[in-house]
Amino acid sequence: DVKDFGADVSFTVDGGPLGDMNSSPFNAADAKVSIKGTDVHPAEAKGVMVNAIQVGMDFHGALPDFDRPEKTEDREGFFHIYDFKGSVDHTEMAYIIRDHDRDRFEARKRLFQGIADQMNTDFGEDRIKVTIKDQYYNMGEIIEKDPTPVKIAEQAMKNVDVKPHIFPVRGGTDGSKISYMGLPTPNIFAGGENMHGRFEYVSEQTMVKAVDVILEIAKLYAEK
């Protein structure tokens, strides 16, 4: 409960390498695709079988080929399939949809739904069901109205001999939701590297520097 925080500003310590600071994450949605097939013996399949696995492959193939995490960078958005399971009779697919720009984010969701609508029209019945749920939004829209927290954190880093690196992060933090609850919450580094991979690690020295920055932020706000 943000009101219980009793604060005018907050920070998350959930970033990566030394000096990283983020106040512009993705707009994010989770999307599920459910496909109903028709399973018959392959010998009698012509004109009858609807292979839900193949339909899923066709759906995925209809998305822009270059709008994937492995082919995008910086402020470029994407569609990312992270689960695909099923059979001829029924298939389920799971995606995340990401974009820093709100208009492009909304356009991506419309495109995603539009592919399903067109395929259902081609089938002559509703075989593909899409469910899209927004997860969080780019808190940059909130923080740009008053960038004071970012400026304070930037100065705090400089004061403890850390070079600030401010950039639009290709991810999100709890601060995204908290910012939209009325409490601006930029994200600063915590020392994590190679995140979400087999070789993820955290630097002890960077963690110590993160503590130094937090203490300096508190000091600068106290002096305001």
Produce the secondary structure layout.
Blueprint (H helix, E strand, L loop, with lengths): L1 H4 L6 E4 L4 E3 L4 E10 L15 H11 L15 E9 L3 E10 L2 H22 L4 E9 L3 H4 L4 H12 L5 E2 L7 H7 L6 E3 L2 E2 L7 E2 L1 H20 L1
Parallel strand pairs: 1-8, 2-7
Antiparallel strand pairs: 2-8, 3-5, 3-6, 4-5, 9-10
Helix pairs in contact: 5-7
Largest sheet: 4 strands, mixed
DSSP helix fraction: 25-40%
Compressed to H and E, one letter per element, the order equals: HEEEHEEHEHHEHEEEH
- What is the CATH architecture term of the largest domain? 2-Layer Sandwich
Shape: elongated
- Low-confidence segments: none
CATH class of the largest domain: Alpha Beta
InterPro entries: Bact_exopeptidase_dim_dom, Peptidase_M20_dimer, Peptidase_M20B
Protein name: Peptidase T
Pfam families: M20_dimer (PF07687)
Domain Peptidase M20 dimerisation: 26-123
Task: List the defining traits of the structure above.
224 residues, alpha+beta, Aminopeptidase, Alpha-Beta Plaits, 2 domains, 10 strands
Structural account:
- The two termini are 26 Å apart.
- The model has no long low-confidence stretch (mean pLDDT 95).
- Strands 1-8-2-7 form a four-stranded mixed sheet. The chain has a four-stranded antiparallel sheet with strand order 4-5-3-6, with helices on one face.
- The radius of gyration is 22 Å and the shape is elongated.
- The protein is built from seven helices and ten strands.
- It folds into two domains: 2-25 and 139-223, Zn peptidases (Aminopeptidase, 3-Layer(aba) Sandwich); 27-136, Alpha-Beta Plaits.
- The protein has helices spanning 2-5, 52-62, 102-123, 140-143, 148-159, 174-180, 204-223, and strands at residues 12-15, 20-22, 27-36, 78-86, 90-99, 128-136, 165-166, 187-189, 192-193, 201-202.
